[in-house]
Structures are given as C-alpha cells and as structure tokens.
Amino acid sequence: MLLSNTVLAQEPIKIYDSKVGQSIIVLADNLEAFPYTIKLEIKQKGLTLQEPLPDYFVVPGNSKGLEITRLNFKENSSWQISYKFQYMEGDADAIHDNDYVYQLPFKDAKFIMSQGYNGTSTHQGINALDFTMPKGQIILAARNGLVVKVKEDSNLGCPSSECMNQGNFVRILHDDGTMAEYHHLEFNGALVAVGDIIEQGQEVGNCGATGYATGPHLHFIVFKTDGIKQITTKTKFKYSPDKIGYLQEGNMYTAF
Q: What is the C-alpha to C-alpha distance for residues 89 and 58, in angstroms, rounded to an integer?
C-alpha cells in the first residue's frame, strides 16, 4: 500500500508521491540553491511505468513538486510500490566549458601554487589547486556565476581529516552547470551571500586555515557529479597578459 505524500528522504532532498486519478506521481523537492543528481530504483506491483526510468534525474536548485516519474494502475489489480535511491550534490548533465579562461583568484600579490592537479599530497586523484597565501588575503572569483552555498561559521582547522567538515567555503554555480568552491576561508570570511550573482574578479572571501589544513591557503576546485561521486575538472587560467594554460604545481603566479 502506498501512503500519499509520505516523505521518503531526509532534507535537503525529499522524494514523495501523490495519487492523481489513475496514476501515482513521484515528486522531488530540492531545498538547496544548487542541483542534485538522484539515482532512483522503483519496485512495483499492479503498476506500470509510463516511461522507463533513466539512469538518473537532475533536480535543479530551489525545486518543489518536480515530477520525476509517473506510474499507472493496472486494471483489477492490487498494487504495491517501494523506492531505493541515492543523491549527490551536482548536475550529472553538466559539461564543463573547456574554452573558458579562468582568472587568478587573487590580486596585487604573488603566490606559489603549493599543490596542483593530482597533487603529491592530499590531491591524489583530484583536480584541485592550492595557493599558499596569508590569512586574510582577499580571494577573487575565478569565474562568474551564482552563489549557491556559503559556510563561514567555523573557527577550527587542523592537519587531520578529523577537521575535514570544519572548513569554511563559498560555492558558485557556473552557467555550464559545473560548480566551483573556494575553501579554507577564515571565520566569518565570506564576502558574498547565497543568491548573489558574481562577476569574474569580484571579491568572494578572505583566506583562512579552517578545515583540513596545515596553514592558511586557498583550495580551489571545479566539479560536477555522475550521481555517485564528485567529478573534478582541470581549468585553464590566464596567468600573464599573454599566457593561458593549466597551472603547474610549484610555480609562482603573480596577479596582473
């Protein structure tokens, strides 16, 4: 037996159902400002899917009552339905614009890139960049977009994975569906709020050492998801007036 409007997942994603005429509609709410990708399995008796289930569903940010699938009753049959699902932050349909040229995320300064893509320490298997810089250094948006998540309430950092979830950050959604994060901001170090439209080069935060960090630095990452895990991507930067390319670990980069 199906209980109409029963919540089947905890926030921020809610999956629930409603009986409408001779159909059962499966709906999704996304209470966050950024997209989630949902993998859904349905077991049913006495019901038929109107269309085969895709491998995943993308639920945009701030969605409520989004229909993700519909089932019809079979005539003269009792029916049952159950769900199994998982969800992941990000848009599995996103395709990174590899021609986009990112800006160095700082101004009026020169900093070493202490760890690069698939780096020698904590970046193994991850396309992320670390810039060593002093606490309080102003961080700029490397690309324009929409602010979809901000954490700035932590003042805890340590060189251990025990502090992983204590890092402050700003997350920005790009127009190609990928998202960037600017990590390890200081306490109350965000200079933007959820809902802000950000231009490339705009101030977004102050560097800190919160979270899993041995000292103050900026951890920059661009990602999507495949519905199960985070997929990170390399990004091209303009790092001098006449040079564009991928930044290299150990090199010094100067804002211009």
A: 10
pLDDT tens-digit readout, 66-118: 999 999 999 888 888 888 889 999 999 999 999 999 999 999 999 999 999 98
- Write down the pTM of the prediction: 0.90
Partnered with residue 103 across adjacent β-strands are 238
Q: Contact, 168 vs 135, CB < 8 A?
A: no
Tokens of 48: 């038929």
Name residue 15's amino acid.
I
User: Are the C-beta atoms of residues 205 and 148 closer than 8 Å to each other?
Assistant: no
Reported as type and span, the H/E element at residue 69 is strand 63-73
CA nearest to 137, candidates 184, 181, 98, 177: 184
Q: How far is CA 139 from CA 104, 136, 192, 195, in A?
A: 9, 9, 11, 19
Residues 61, 66: Cα–Cα separation, whole Å: 11
